[in-house]
């Protein structure tokens, strides 16, 4: 069945942009005040349903993309763990794992540098105040705080850590949208997971304005796509 008006043809074209019937109706020239009702009415039209399905099939065939491929992409993005990209962690202080909770050094080289710095800063005629190494060596700056540390009381200190994006999982790579240095430091950009869930909901017909097409491909359960 052919579409009856130029507005209907334009509605079909606009609906394919974002699958939003209300906005498509507005862009097609219908009144913004009644666009919600108009969109629902248009989607209920069998001729419009067939035109949209035909356009979707034609578009997918051009790029060899299936509904399952698109849904899988959105699902991986929506369920990716942001902590893989950037996270805040609590790490130990210098006293957490030192012997008897004394100040712990990374290694002897670090300790020697501190001793030499103390000597250089000593005023002439006075003996230098040298640091102690009774806490031992082997400080690891990314270990979680010792819960009974008398200095930090198990709190350690906060540290913001950005991952090496070359090592991200496939899902996290979909989430990661780039990075740049600003006046305030490193800025990590991430794609919108809420938007991904919205697209999944639309794809599965969970909204009232979602198109119900005849012969629609049955989508597998989300857990089967993992």
The domain tally reads: 3
Number of strands: 4
Trace the largest sheet across and list its strands.
1-2
Relative strand content: 5-15%
What Rg, in angstroms, do the CA atoms define?
Answer: 30 Å
Helix percentage range: 40-55%
How many helical stretches?
Answer: 8
Instruction: Label the structural class.
Output: alpha+beta
Overall mean pLDDT stands at 86
The low-pLDDT segments are 210-223
What's the order of the H and E elements? HHHHHEHEHEEH
How many angstroms does the end-to-end distance come to? Answer: 39 Å
Throw out a few tags for this protein.
two-stranded antiparallel ribbon; 8 helices; alpha+beta; two-stranded antiparallel sheet; 226 residues; Arc Repressor Mutant, subunit A; rod-shaped; 3 domains; 40% helix; single chain
Write a concise synopsis of the structure shown:
By secondary structure, the chain is an alpha+beta fold. The protein is 40% helix and 11% strand.
What does this structure look like?
This protein has three domains: 1-62, Arc Repressor Mutant, subunit A, CATH 1.10.10.1400; 66-85 and 163-207 and 215-226, no CATH class; 90-158, no CATH class. Helix content is 40%, strand content 11%. It has eight helices and four strands, in the order αααααβαβαββα. It is rod-shaped. The protein starts with 5 loop residues before the first helix and ends in a 23-residue tail after the last helix. 18% of the residues are buried. The model is unreliable at 210-223 (pLDDT under 50).
